[in-house]
Amino acid sequence: MAGSRMPVLAALAAIGFLVGGWLAPQPLQAQESGAWRVKDLIQATEPKIQLRDRRNRILHEVEVAQLVYLYAVMSAIEEAAEIGADLYIVPGNSPNAFAGNGNAGENIVGINFAMLDLIGKDVHAAAAILGHELAHLKLNHREDLEKAQNRAPSSVFSASGTRYSRDNEREADYLGMIWSVEAGYDPQGAVRVHETLYKLSKTSPSGFSGSHPSSIERITVLKSMARRLGR
């Protein structure tokens, strides 16, 4: 269960801070895709890292402890879902997350800067987002969408704003929440995420709220699902 990992992760994060807390943030450049793989980021030796572009400009700063928690959540959801994917952080000022395949066909889940900030260290919210995106992969939603629109397969990093059908979104919500519960997380995390996104959509209808609409109806359904699965 994911809950049993939390004390260990907290201890590791504390050790990392004590050992490297006095050091300046570690600069890390993006890969060719313009993204950073979380598995690589958590190997950083300082408690904070600076995410930089190919020109070495600072784009974002993040605590390694948050990424450790995020990676642990991803691993737990992957186990419940019986599907694996590389988790990446990508630039973005409006909260967004996406899933698809890389150039070599590998499964990829991406979370942008704004979504990372929105989630913070709320592992239950992270489980909701990651479970939802892994469900899109498991159910081949993007592949089905590209076939329906007669589009050639494209890299996930160039099509992160893909909009799925309402049925696809409902399926991903439901399956993702089931996996979250199986992994030991609170299904109310999904409700919190979508309530926040709904509020943000009132002032800035873009990012995740553009490709994954967070409506009152959807929030109501999520609350009902969370009550049933949380028993």
Description:
With 231 residues, this protein is α/β, with parallel strands linked by helices. The chain has a single domain (2-229), classed as Metalloproteases ("zincins"), catalytic domain (Zincin-like), CATH 3.30.2010. The chain has helices spanning 6-20, 38-41, 64-81, 113-119, 123-138, 141-148, 166-182, 188-201, 208-211, 216-229; strands at 26-29, 36-37, 48-52, 58-63, 86-90, 97-101, 107-112. The protein has a 4-stranded mixed beta sheet. The protein has a 3-stranded mixed beta sheet with strand order 1-3-4. A hairpin with a 5-residue loop joins strand 3 (48-52) and strand 4 (58-63). The longest helix is centred in the N-terminal third of the chain and has 18 residues, at 64-81. The two termini are 17 Å apart. The model is unreliable at 1-23 (pLDDT under 50). It comes from Elongatibacter sediminis. This is M48 family metallopeptidase. InterPro entries: Mito/Outer_Membr_Metalloprot, Peptidase_M48. Keywords: Hydrolase, Metal-binding, Metalloprotease, Protease, Zinc. Its cofactor is Zn(2+).
